[in-house]
Specification:
The chain is of the alpha/beta class. It contains ten helices and twelve strands.
Length: 314
């Protein structure tokens, strides 16, 4: 590894992986950096478990009142919304964010998407004046997650200070397990509906009726209908002008796949980064990622498949 060149203006993202192996080491790393950030006039956010937040507040004394805090469950459970929350918190201000997910109890899918979104931070927040310290408790973090610390972070903080990671990979080059595998085929009893521009309203009714009959929570049906409508409208406007939707249920969720025979992926990070307010395009996948639990995309042989997953609710 090579030493990191000091930033001269503080106007670009600094994304740092911070491994530690004890509560004392956590405080040694966090307390001076929080105080320095406060002295610089930065807004400070700390996201970690209640016990560590209490330790940090005690160590900071009166400065603790100047620090925002969140618990991991409210911040990391939905990786796509995490990106939006980081974007909202850091945009237009100088910030320090110290973050630590609670990996215990997460599904394999949640872990994978959280690792991916941690990488996307490098692109989504590149122009922000943010310092982001991502904590890795070596006593608790799964080995598979630790592997991606140096991959997702340009900078590592160790006993010798900050060093550049020679394993860092740009977000659009990151390939995780199953990324290039074919999507499993829908079950044989899945329902399919073909749509054109004239049938988008009918499509929305069709999706809503299917979700209700499947037993989806009423509050989630609107999210599903909006998501499907956004993707289908993209197919009509920017793709072949028509497409098909296939729907099925399984494992406590409803899955909708929109297939567009004229679609293509020209964005290396589709739907992960919010479009600029003046942009006329790019909202469909962004909105769908915010509303759904998982969005999968595959583009093969001229066919773009967008698969939306949303839990059925209580």
């Amino acid at each position: 590894m090579r030493p990191v060149r000091a930033r001269s203006d503080g106007e670009s993202l600094k994304h740092v992986a911070v491994p530690y192996d004890s509560d004392e080491r956590f405080l040694d790393l966090a307390v001076p950096r929080v105080r320095a950030a406060l002295d610089e006039g930065r807004r400070v956010l700390v996201i970690t478990g209640a016990a560590k937040l209490a330790q940090l507040r005690e160590a900071l004394g009166g400065d603790a009142e100047r620090v925002d805090s969140r618990v991991p469950a409210s911040w990391y459970d939905h990786p796509y919304r995490m990106l939006a929350a980081y974007h909202e918190y850091t945009r237009g201000r100088r910030t320090l964010v110290i973050g630590e997910p609670s990996w215990t109890g997460m599904s394999r899918r949640q872990v994978r998407e959280l690792i991916r979104c941690d990488s996307v931070i490098n692109a989504a927040l590149r122009a922000t004046a943010a310092i982001m310290l991502c904590l890795y408790d070596l006593r608790r973090v799964p080995e598979a997650v630790l592997h991606y610390g140096p991959v997702n972070h340009p900078v590592l903080l160790g006993s010798e200070g900050e060093m550049a990671s020679n394993r860092f990979v740009e977000p659009h080059e990151l390939v995780l397990h199953d990324d290039q595998a074919p999507l499993p085929e829908p079950p044989g009893d899945a329902g399919t509906f073909r749509f054109t521009a004239r049938e988008l309203k009918r499509l929305r009714h069709h999706v809503g009726d299917y979700a209700r009959s499947a037993g989806m929570d009423r509050n989630l049906i609107t999210s599903l209908v909006i998501s499907v409508s956004e993707i289908a409208a993209n197919s009509v406007e920017h793709g072949a002008g028509y497409g098909t939707i296939t729907m099925w249920t399984g494992d406590g969720e409803l899955v909708c796949e929109i297939a567009d025979p004229g679609g293509a992926l020209d964005d290396p990070l589709p739907g992960y980064i919010p479009p600029e307010p003046e942009s006329p395009r790019g909202y469909g996948l962004w909105i769908s990622r915010q509303l759904c639990d998982l969005v999968e995309l595959r583009a093969e042989d001229g066919l773009l498949r967008v698969r939306l997953h949303l839990g059925m609710g209580a």
